[in-house]
Every structure is written in C-alpha cells, then in structure tokens.
Amino acid sequence: MKRILLADDEEVLRMLIVDTLEDEGYEIDEAEDGREALEKAGSGDYDLIILDYMMPEYTGIEVAKQIRNMDSHQDIQILMLSAKNQQSDIETSQEAGINYYMAKPFSPLQLLDLVEEILNA
C-alpha cells in the first residue's frame, strides 16, 4: 500500500482529500501545520508528500526545503497545493524541490488522477 503524507491547515479540505485517496486504497497520514508535517516526514516512510503552500508554523516551501535536506528524502515526490498561482510562486516551489504543483481550487478527481500518475510513473 502506498503511503502519503498530507499537510494542509484546512480541515475540511484534508477530510475531502483523505476520503478520496483512502477510497482508492492509499494510506494517508495528516498534518495540520508545517511543524507537524516536518516531524511526520522525518519519522515516516512516504511515497508522496502533499503540502499546502500557506500553513501555520512553516510554509509548504519551508517544509519542502527541509525535507530535501534529509538524506533519506532526496528522491521523495512532493506535490504542492496552492491558491497562489502566479508564475513566480510556481518557480519558487520548483526551486524548493517541489516536483508537482496543483492550483486550488481543484476537484478531488483531478487530484486523484495526478496522485496516480505520480505514484505509477
């Protein structure tokens, strides 16, 4: 079973994403903020990390940079979810080591399609 870490401070969105992905057989761990995301990323073995751009404690950008500095997480796939959709935001994400970027709002099926594409590549 593929394991995913989902970090987003919006509880309703997390619930929607968890329901969508668990229905397809993915195991999901949740984090409410950047600090919790880093703690879980450092202690878990994930196939994919999904980060919200704007979170309390640390932003998704800060979390991604710190994950990329972990020896065991150099190759993990990271997907950024964000309402910040300017080209400069996307470029900042790429520079931080983000592999994929999805603009909010999105449909759960769009996210599922992308997750399956990432994990089956």
From TrEMBL:
UniProt domain Response regulatory: residue ranges: 3-119
A GO BP entry: phosphorelay signal transduction system
GO molecular function, one term: kinase activity
Domain of life: Bacteria
Phosphoprotein among keywords: yes
Keyword Cytoplasm applies: no
Keywords on record: DNA-binding, Kinase, Phosphoprotein, Transcription, Transcription regulation, Transferase, Two-component regulatory system
Chain positions with 4-aspartylphosphate modification: D52
Gene3D superfamilies recorded: 3.40.50.2300
Record's protein name: Histidine kinase
